[in-house]
Structure formats: C-alpha cells, structure tokens
Amino acid sequence: GAVVSQHPSWVICKSGTSVKIECRSLDFQATTMFWYRQFPKQSLMLMATSNEGSKATYEQGVEKDKFLINHASLTLSTLTVTSAHPEDSSFYICSARRTGNNSPLHFGNGTRLTVT
Amino acid sequence: DAKTTQPPSMDCAEGRAANLPCNHSTISGNEYVYWYRQIHSQGPQYIIHGLKNNETNEMASLIITEDRKSSTLILPHATLRDTAVYYCIVVNNNAGNMLTFGGGTRLMVKP
C-alpha cells in the first residue's frame, strides 16, 4: 500500500491565490522529504529538500518566497504555492524515505495544480 | 551522481519479457542503481535497486554487468498495465538520498 500520502490530488485556483499541498509519511518518520515538479511531457525536477525542524534547501532557480515549505513534524511536510500564476500550473510530487541503509524513496501520487 | 542513458521509447508485446537497458558508464563504487516507473498522472513507483549483484523481486529483475557500467531491468511477463515511463537512476545513498530523474524510457506494452 501507499507509504506516502499527498493531498489534494488536484486543485484549481485563481491567479493570485495561494495553494497548500500536504505530504505525509504513513507509518514511518521522515526527517527529510523532497518536493518535485513535473511539467507536461517532461521529467521530474527537484524543487527543494524539506528538513524537519529547519529551513528547506531550494534548488537553483526555485524561489523560496514563492514556494514555502514547512516541515513541522516528522510525518508532515507542506508546500505552499503563494500568489499562484498560470505558469505555476504543474504536477507537484513529494517523496520521503524510511530511515535505514538502502531504503528507497517513496513518492506520493502527486498534486495537479491548475491556475486559471 | 552518475548520469544515465536510456532509450527514449520501447515497445513490447503483452506476455513477453520487457528488457529495458540503462547505461551508467561513470558510476562510482558507492553508487546504487535504482529503477522507478511512472504511470500517467501518478507519482513514481519504486521497482527495484541494486549495487553490484543481480536482484529479483515480485515486480522485476535487475541485471547489473560485472563492470557496473550498465544494467537491464527485466519485466518477465509484461502486461498492458506495465505501460509507463521507466527511470534508471544512479545515486549515492550517502548523498542526501535525493533522486535526479533523466528522460527515462517510455515502454508501450501492446496487445
């Protein structure tokens, strides 16, 4: 069964509004979670690394003030797209890993964001 | 992390084995080979991973060459539900665990 839960699975919002996406690790604690973005017909691109209890680490070109990440507990990370614009429309995917050597990253089922 | 090269697309007949190749000629000794797949509009699904020995699980087999410069993912009896984009990723498990996705191989299983 799913080990990483993402919510909502899709959302439509108006330009200028903010949208929050939740990522939960089920039955395990994740000190680190990763947020990816995927545009149509493209591969996944890492946006940021979410660290429990500390600031997220953003990839080059990703605006930290626009994509707010909060990792307040060991099982929950949230990504807030602030002042969304149509160009932010994309498929957002989170991932988390059980602690322990060689444990693979597991991904949520993604959130399709459409900004009108 | 070492880069990987995969064919952009492949076809496979339903019920036959699907063999998906991956080149990772610059892989280093502490890097693992991971395979994920992504079915349309879903998050990536973990399939299998290995370091240097061949691996098998309920989903697939992973064959890694002795020099570790390439590997092959084998789906022994492909079904229509196996149609997806398959990603071969090489990662150092001590480097933060993030995965860098390339273009992958779009596998089309045909009836």
Descriptive notes:
The complex is a heterodimer of chains A (116) and B (111). In chain A, the strands form 2 sheets. In chain A, strands 2, 4, 5, 6, 9, 10 and 11 form a 7-stranded mixed sheet that branches. In chain A, 0% of the residues lie in helices and 52% in strands. Chain A has 116 residues and is mainly β. Chain A is globular. In chain A, strand 4 and strand 5 form a beta hairpin. Chain B is an all-beta fold and 111 residues long. Chain B is 0% helix and 47% strand. In chain B, the strands form 2 sheets. Chain B has a 5-stranded mixed sheet, with no helix packed on it. Chain B has a 4-stranded antiparallel sheet with strand order 2-7-6-5, with no helix packed on it. Chain B is globular and about 40 Å long. The mean pLDDT of chain B is 93. The chains are: A mainly beta (116), B mainly beta (111). The interface between A and B is medium-sized, with 24 and 22 residues.
Shape of chain A: globular
Cα end-to-end separation of chain B = 37 Å
The ordered H/E elements of chain A are: EEEEEEEEEEE
Largest interface: A-B, 24 and 22 residues
Q: Secondary-structure element sequence of chain B?
A: EEEEEEEEE
For the residues shown, what is the average pLDDT of chain A? Answer: 92
Give the structural class of chain A: mainly beta
Major sheet summary line of chain A: 7 strands, mixed
Fraction in beta strands of chain B: over 45%
Keywords:
heterodimer, A: 116 residues, mainly beta, globular, B: 111 residues, 5-stranded mixed β-sheet, 4-stranded antiparallel β-sheet, 9 strands, 47% strand
Short description:
The complex is a heterodimer of chains A (116) and B (111). Chain A is built from no helices and 11 strands.
Secondary-structure map:
The complex is a heterodimer of chains A (116) and B (111).
Chain A: E1 4-7, E2 10-13, E3 19-25, E4 32-38, E5 45-51, E6 57-58, E7 67-73, E8 76-81, E9 90-97, E10 105-107, E11 111-115
Chain B: E1 9-13, E2 18-23, E3 31-38, E4 45-50, E5 55-56, E6 61-64, E7 70-75, E8 84-92, E9 105-110
Parallel strand pairs in B: 1-9
Antiparallel strand pairs in B: 2-7, 3-4, 3-8, 5-6, 6-7, 8-9
